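We were asked to recover a plausible sequence for a given structure. The inputs and outputs are reproduced exactly as logged, with field labels preserved.

PROBLEM: sequence recovery
POSITIONS: 184
GIVEN STRUCTURE:
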């Protein structure tokens, strides 16, 4: 039994050394490029490659080709714009909502689009965090989106034309098999 525990401890130690070496490599690349962010251990960075792949739910093949989209007029801006813009700190105000956790489900497109919509609603209202929390689960259960992915254009159109209720009405469960009829 002691030998088994010793082997387990050694395995965990070796895995953490590999993760530390990979993180150090990423940090060095950030430093060399003079990038303005910091890499660290996150809930995603500790996942296996298979677990990470399962959470990547964007599906490019469903996106319309450029000639199928309505293209607006091409114009040259008549004024200059800021080099960067961060809605989390715009004139000291945070317009963005909290980050969600998609769990072991490839629903990143749903979280990204719902987060963008919540932020746009805050910006449009001119208020910092209106305490918006919309239901990603409703999109997961009631739309063509799934834990196997979806695409941003169709997801945003669903939000625009059909809408989505609040999180309290249909809490997120990271499962596309939950029936749409479970919402309030």
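RECOVERED SEQUENCE:
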């Amino acid at each position: 039994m002691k030998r088994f525990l010793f082997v387990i401890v050694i395995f965990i130690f070796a895995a953490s050394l590999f993760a530390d070496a990979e993180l150090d490599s990423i940090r060095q690349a950030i430093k060399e490029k003079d990038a303005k962010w910091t890499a660290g251990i996150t809930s995603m960075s500790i996942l296996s490659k298979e677990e990470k792949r399962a959470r990547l739910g964007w599906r490019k093949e469903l996106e319309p080709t450029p000639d199928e989209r309505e293209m607006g007029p091409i114009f040259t801006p008549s004024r200059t714009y800021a080099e960067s813009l961060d809605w989390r700190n715009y004139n000291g105000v945070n317009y963005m909502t909290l980050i969600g956790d998609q769990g072991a489900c490839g629903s990143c497109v749903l979280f990204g689009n719902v987060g963008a919509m919540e932020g746009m609603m805050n910006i449009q209202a001119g208020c910092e965090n209106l305490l918006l929390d919309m239901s990603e689960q409703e999109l997961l259960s009631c739309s063509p989106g799934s834990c196997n992915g979806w695409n941003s254009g169709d997801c945003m159109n669903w939000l625009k034309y059909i809408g989505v209720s609040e999180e309290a009405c249909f809490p997120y469960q990271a499962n596309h098999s939950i029936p749409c009829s479970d919402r309030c």
